Automatic annotation (TrEMBL):
Gene3D superfamilies: alpha/beta hydrolase (3.40.50.1820). The lineage of its organism: Bacteria, Bacillati, Actinomycetota, Actinomycetes, Micrococcales. This is Pimeloyl-ACP methyl ester carboxylesterase. InterPro entries: AB_hydrolase_1 (IPR000073), AB_hydrolase_fold (IPR029058), Sec-Metab_Biosynth_Hydrolase (IPR052897). One of its GO terms (molecular function) is catalytic activity. Residues 3-222 form the AB hydrolase-1 domain.
Length: 232
């Protein structure tokens, strides 16, 4: 299976490097994405928005014959969702890694501190302890060292969804920061921020208890979960 790996904020394709061995051993063809503006610390980021990240993945999908699995971590999950909205007949499954589908018109995160045209990785105090679980001092140092500022508009641009067939695309939610029971309670309670998740017609939940960056804290387990999700 062709698998496209989409990183979350501040990360490039290399952030999947400790996850990919499990997928490669299972025989999958991997396409790890470095989104526009994330090529290097010095890359230009002015004028790059959410749609540019979506278009970059769409070009990959359109260049592949046959079905494709999309794996999106955090904000990369929103990119994967947008791609499934535009190519619902091409996507075999979307795997959201500590992410969930968002509603039309929502933005990924408009509260992050912007500096000019970009959002540098903030101070750790911006993140809750649940997000930072298992990311020790050395892990935090390595993350910051490799981080690349995110184009500001990617975080603030509204998501545009137009094709309800996206809700039929099989989806896997790998929950890390929150247990799946919490997500299900929000859905059952009609919480507005999970309204799109509630409308999805083929969703499974898998728990991987750790912080928001399992590709760093539990990469082998994440790899095996991805292999299992793709097999389904």
């Amino acid at each position: 299976m062709d698998v496209i790996l989409i990183p979350g904020f501040w990360l490039d394709a290399s952030s999947w490097s400790e996850v990919t061995p499990e997928l490669e051993a299972a025989g999958h063809r991997l396409h790890a994405v470095t989104p526009p503006g994330l090529e290097s610390v010095d890359a230009p980021r002015a004028g790059i928005g959410l749609d540019d990240h979506v278009e970059a993945v769409l070009r990959l999908v359109d260049g592949i014959e046959g079905p494709v699995v999309l794996v999106g971590h955090s904000g990369g999950g929103t990119v994967a969702q947008a791609v499934s909205d535009r190519r619902p007949d091409r996507i075999a499954r979307v795997v959201y890694v500590d992410a969930a589908p968002m509603g039309d018109g929502d933005s990924i995160n408009d509260s992050l501190p912007v500096v000019g045209d970009e959002i540098p990785l903030p101070d750790w105090s911006v993140f809750g302890e649940g997000m930072l679980a298992d990311l020790d001092d050395e892990g935090r140092r390595r993350f910051r060292e490799r981080s690349i500022p995110e184009p500001a508009a990617v975080a603030t641009d509204p998501l545009r969804l137009t094709d309800d067939r996206r809700r039929d695309v099989p989806s896997t939610i790998i929950t890390c920061e929150y247990p799946s029971t919490q997500l299900k309670e929000w859905v059952a309670g009609g919480a507005p921020f999970v309204r799109e998740l509630a409308a999805m017609r083929d969703v499974e939940y898998v728990d991987l208890p750790t912080g928001h960056w399992p590709q760093f804290t539990r990469p082998a387990e994440l790899g095996r979960m991805l292999v299992d999700a793709i097999a389904r």
